Amino acid sequence: MNSARLASNNTKPFNKGSYRRRRLVMIVLACFLSWAGVTLWNQIGKINDRSEKLTALEQKYKETQQTNGITKREIVRLNDPEYVEQKIRKELHYVKQGETLFYVPKEQKR
């Protein structure tokens, strides 16, 4: 008889307050998960945009490094008097005394 009495004491009657609290917690949890999902979706979009910008900037950085290397080589070459003379003759059409400069006309495209 004692065992029957203990079994009936362990079962709790249906409690409306406990059910309401659980339902409220589940609603709050669902709202939080919805907010977290929307925030995550927005963050993923921002990350994709930033990664595209990063790729474009990395490409621009590589091009700038190449341009910088070419410019540094040109600076080193400009310290050579022979190169400077050659460049002046070619770009500015200078000639030494006693030399004759001949122009070769470029062919025109029709």
TrEMBL record:
Pfam families: DivIC. Signal peptide: none annotated. Residues 47-74 form a coiled coil. Keywords: Coiled coil, Membrane, Transmembrane, Transmembrane helix. The chain crosses the membrane at residues 24-44. InterPro entries: DivIC, FtsL/DivIC. This is Septum formation initiator family protein. It comes from Paenibacillus radicis.
